[in-house]
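Handout, page 2. Input:
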Amino acid sequence: QLAEGYASSVEANPYKVLEIDLGPFNRNFPRMNMAQSIGQGVTFLNRHLSSSMFQGGMNGGVNEGKLQLFEFLRGLSHKGHPLLVNPNRLLSLQQMQQALLRADRFLDEFDDEAPWEDFADRLTALGFEKGWGR
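Output:
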């Protein structure tokens, strides 16, 4: 009935146009305001999206973006071997945060060029696996 009513009103007035306000969809979309940002759209958008990932969406005191990143890291593997994080050792985001602090303090004792073998046992005990790079 609605379509028939619209069709008959268009026949009576062919200049009637359907208007849709898309403003609410663009309200929170980031805008570049500085001239030096020209040509940097992807970088700008990437920064905005990654920043918003860790700011909003609180779920019982845990930031939803951090939780999603933690679950993503726990799922990474190659040929059945975990990468970056051992999902059997780091079971919660809080455990990973504590392990990161301990690992950071521990790694301060080593030279930047130290081979993985020098600290692999300790990092593995903390729940970390190969794949982080130097």
